[in-house]
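Structural prep section.
Before we set up the soaks we want a predicted structure of the protein with thymidine-5'-diphosphate in place, mainly to decide which crystallisation condition to try first. Input record follows.
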Amino acid sequence: MLITFEGIDGSGKTTQSRRLFNYLKEKGLPVHIFREPGGTQLAESLRKILLEEELDERGELLLFEAARADLCSKKLLPLLDAGEIVILDRFTDSTLAYQGYGRGIDLELVKTLNTFSTFGLRPDITFLLDIDVETALERVREKTRFDEPLFLEKVRRGFLEIAREEPDRVVLIGSKRSEDEVFEDIVRVLKDRTGLI
Ligand code: TYD
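Run finished without errors. Recording the tokens verbatim:
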């Protein structure tokens, strides 16, 4: 089972994905967690470049996809084949929202590259943590070159559009609430939709 968390920076997905990881682990389930970009040595090196360098938007897209292909081939596919549970802090929807809707790269091209880099892998369930940009940016301590308000507005709209297009996979969770309230929602939905717990 592949469970992904998506949302703009400051939406709380890192906190919530780690919380779910600990929760499932305590229940004795075989669960792993990775963040994107990252999760392998190569992907972590690419992450550093992506966060620190001023890249052209095409190069940026390709490096995110290169990092993802490495994570998929070395970690995700073997773990999922072995029947383990994988939680991801960001995945393909981030690329569609940030590079597609945010930077304005052709959406079909981004979708094609997403399919290519993941060998066609799709999440079983995606939690989209939604929050307004202003509140989200107040929560972000170390801002990166992605944390521009107008850019994040486009990214947020992109994520909402993805949720609207794929309601069977993407669960919209309002995250302008307490950490506990958001987590309770996530656990409830996971129970209802997957029967995992
Ligand atoms: P992340 O570590 O999730 O940042 P944060 O902890 O602030 O949420 O991701 C790093 C940045 O990379 C983030 O600003 C979003 C961006 N990103 C993309 O633009 N495209 C992508 O495909 C991914 C995975 C991330």
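Observations: The pocket of thymidine-5'-diphosphate is lined by residues 9, 14, 35-37, 64, 89-90, 94-95, 98-99, 144, 146 (CB under 6 Å).
Flagged for discussion at group meeting.
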